[in-house]
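Q: Given only this backbone (79 positions), what sequence would you predict?
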């Protein structure tokens, strides 16, 4: 399973909702307005269910959620 592609598909279909048609691994999801505080909560729930990881409160920092690549790195660090 390509983690980047799973993340891109989820962000495009569930969080971007027409704001951006193509999301690349290094696009800044926060500054482009694709990911906001509610979106981060949705994403955390998705990550926990999909990748069977536990996201602690202290893990929810900008560095972990800024780009698809950063989210992927975060997932790998939790496995």
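A: Predicted residues:
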């Amino acid at each position: 399973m390509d983690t980047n592609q799973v993340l891109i598909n989820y962000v495009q279909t569930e969080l971007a909702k027409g704001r951006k048609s193509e999301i690349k691994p290094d696009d800044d999801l926060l500054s482009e307005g694709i990911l906001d505080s509610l979106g981060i909560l949705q994403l955390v729930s998705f990550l926990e269910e999909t990748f069977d990881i536990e996201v602690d409160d202290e893990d929810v920092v900008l560095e972990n959620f800024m780009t698809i690549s950063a989210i992927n790195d975060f997932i790998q660090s939790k496995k």
